[in-house]
Amino acid sequence: MNQREYELIQAAKAGDNRAFDELIRSHDKRILQVAHGILGNMQDAYDAYQEGVIRAYKKLPSFRFESSFSTWLSRIVINQALNMRKKAKIKRFLSFSSSKDDYREVADTSQETPDEIVVRHELSSQIKKSLDLLSDRERAVFVLKHMHGYKLREIALMINCAEGTVKNYLFRGTRKLRADLEGYQSTASVDSPPIG
């Protein structure tokens, strides 16, 4: 944590809303991307992010500098995203409906043949379905590690568990994804997923 961030946190804890806004703005894009990776659609990601920021604002007086502000804020938003996934699963189960949210296509298709576009779209759809097979914690760890590049120790702090437990979630999640995407092995690798 640099001196400027420390000063902003102290000012925000003393009631300076502009300091809190500046703190949040310095982390918002990355944290929103993490929420999107866990939830699978941008609208839910915004909801989790906004609720997480509100909770962070309320809990700021209890921030004790035991971790970085980024890790602390990430943990709050990740927990909110995981809670939203649990509620959505219960709702889908009770209503017997399925979600049709798709990851946004961001690849340049101008150089692809029609067959390549179809295969890429099918693969993207299959990756989303495969991610839905993971438990909430497995999905969160996989997204944080492979889509956002966090180290295992950072992820452990974010989801509040031991580093060995994070490794276990990552191992199990990766194994499930490899098994489910086995037919697409020549098209993509689970270690470097094309969605982000």
What does this 3D model show about the protein?
The chain has 9 helices and no strands. Helix 3 crosses helix 4 and helix 5 packs across helix 8. It has 196 residues and is an all-alpha fold. The C terminus is likely disordered. The chain has 2 domains: 101 residues, Orthogonal Bundle (Rna Polymerase Sigma Factor, Chain: A); 94 residues, Winged helix-like DNA-binding domain superfamily/Winged helix DNA-binding domain (Arc Repressor Mutant, subunit A), CATH 1.10.10.10. The protein is elongated.
Beta-strand segment tally? 0
Measured by DSSP, the beta-strand proportion falls in under 5%
CATH class of the largest domain: Mainly Alpha
How many separate domains make up the residues? 2
Please state the overall shape, judged from the principal axes of the Cα atoms. elongated
| Intertermini distance | 27 Å
Layout: helices, strands, pairs:
Blueprint: H1 3-13, H2 17-25, H3 28-39, H4 42-59, H5 69-95, H6 114-133, H7 136-147, H8 152-159, H9 163-180
Helix pairs in contact: 1-2, 3-4, 3-5, 4-5, 5-8, 6-9, 7-9, 8-9
